[in-house]
Design goal:
This protein is of the alpha+beta class. It folds into 3 domains: 2-165, ph1033 like fold, CATH 3.10.590; 178-291, no CATH class; 306-425, no CATH class. Helix content is 28%, strand content 26%. It has 14 helices and 21 strands. It has helices spanning 15-19, 39-43, 49-57, 60-63, 119-122, 128-131, 141-150, 174-178, 181-196, 271-280, 282-291, 298-305, 336-353, 380-389, and strands at 2-6, 29-33, 66-72, 75-81, 86-89, 100-113, 135-137, 213-216, 223-225, 228-230, 235-241, 255-258, 268-269, 309-312, 320-324, 357-363, 370-376, 394-399, 402-407, 413-418, 423-425. The longest helix has 18 residues, at 336-353. The mean pLDDT is 89.
Length: 426
């Protein structure tokens, strides 16, 4: 599937009419107003990339795998090509006299207010690359996931993840952060600083050069917000970026917060640190989850699975085995009473199968968050089936001293660590 951001006329001022069928084709249509090249000239490589690509997406073999986003006057449109691009004289279309208009019949899959779509998609035009173009391919995963949500193609237990951006093994800490968009990401940083005890006068820096957030410590002791330190009576300036370029913290800012792996410099706060700030403070976590309530809960919890530690009461006398929990089905946190009931049902299921199990704890490194888990003597395929039966996103598999994370949906495996390096206790 290919996704595109489209503008119909300068500033999208023709979008409403063209998508309502008030155009030379007489049906809902998208249009590009570039040059006077013919189809044959485009196919020969003439003209600019955007109109050539537009013409290509109208061909029969590309239509089903094409989606186009238009946002005009507070209205969101999701479009699919419905026919080949027609080359129409622009002489009767206002200021487009002398141009050959590229007009594509479209099917309007969705039309709604921008208030009904995820914020990351509503603000897509604020991205300089998309906003400065006319027909630009959307590759940002936050927008791709939001488009799928609008179209009702979010994968679940009965709807496998077909697109790569939904594959759980791509769900690193940065994935949900990218779904916030620019405004949401800056708001997350501001709220995290407030939760730590700072005064934050504004949640956006606007046109302030190199700085997006100012955080003041009006108290008598240093405030620590993850890696960010604010001395008593001092303030810090923070730049927020959706993608870390590797350039480090800019002049004029005390810290750079950016999505990406960025532990090379102490003044750069990367995805894992920011994700932990979002998930480890109750108030910030509630805001984070509510802002992204269109995403499946598993998207938020999968990054934690890679950092799981295990606390044992006794050694596990097996060379290969699985570890899984029946707690919190599909990554959704449920009550302790519900989890205890699920544990009893899980133990009864194992007994009925004649499977031996050793109970243990799995959780964060300090075990402030933990779940009741079981080491079970079954094959990998049996363990995956058990995981699916008890609505688990993933299980752990230990073999030859290696700790592997296994996706219950796709059966994909990922090495996490040496098993001995993640165990405490016996």
């Amino acid at each position: 599937m290919k996704y595109f951001y489209l503008k119909i006329g300068k500033g999208n001022w023709l979008a409403e009419d063209w998508l309502a069928g008030r155009n030379p084709l007489g049906v809902p249509a998208a249009a590009l107003f570039f040059d006077n090249h013919t189809l044959q000239e485009y196919e020969a490589g003439a003209g600019k990339k955007q109109p050539r690509r537009f013409v290509e997406r109208g061909k029969a073999e590309n239509r089903e795998q094409t989606r186009m986003v238009v946002i005009s006057k507070g209205t969101f449109y999701l479009l699919k090509p419905a026919g080949e691009v027609k080359f129409v004289s622009g002489d009767e279309i206002g200021e487009y006299y002398g141009f050959t208009v590229k007009a594509m019949p479209v099917e309007v899959l969705k039309r709604c207010s921008v208030s009904e779509i995820p914020l990351v998609l509503a603000e897509v035009a604020s991205n300089r690359y998309y906003g400065s173009g006319t027909f630009r391919e959307i590759k940002d995963v936050g927008n791709l996931m939001a488009i799928d949500w609008v179209e009702g193609r979010v994968p679940g237990r009965d709807e496998p993840a077909r697109a790569d951006h939904w594959k759980l093994f791509r769900m690193r800490s940065g994935r949900p952060l990218k779904c916030l968009g620019n405004v949401g990401l800056e708001t997350l940083v501001a709220k995290s600083m407030e939760a730590a005890g700072c005064f934050v006068p504004a949640y956006r820096g606007g046109q302030v050069n190199a700085v997006d957030i100012f955080a003041h410590n009006d108290g008598d002791e240093t405030i620590q917000c993850g890696p960010i330190s604010v001395a008593a009576g001092e303030k810090v300036a923070i730049q927020v970026k959706r993608k870390w370029t590797g350039r480090g913290c800019p002049d004029g800012a005390d810290y750079l917060v950016a999505i990406g792996e960025s532990d090379q410099e102490s003044r750069v706060v990367g995805s894992e640190e920011l994700f932990d700030l979002a998930m480890n403070n109750h108030a910030v976590k509630q805001w984070f989850l509510r802002s992204l309530d269109w995403l499946p809960p598993k998207v938020f919890y999968y990054p934690f699975y890679r950092r799981t530690w295990f606390r044992l009461e006794r050694a596990i006398p097996l060379s290969s085995f699985a570890i899984m929990t029946p707690d919190n089905p599909d990554g959704e946190v449920v009550s302790p009473e519900t989890n205890e009931k699920r544990c009893r049902e899980f133990e009864e299921d194992l007994q009925s199968r004649g499977v031996s199990a050793i109970r243990l704890e799995a959780g964060s490194k300090d075990f402030t968050h933990r779940e009741s888990s079981y080491a079970i003597d079954v094959s990998l395929l049996e363990a995956i089936e058990l995981g699916r039966d008890f609505q688990q996103v993933a299980i752990f598999w230990i073999e030859s001293g290696e700790l592997l994370l296994v996706d219950c949906e796709t059966t994909e495996q990922e090495r996490v660590a040496l098993w001995a390096d993640r165990c405490v206790g016996s």
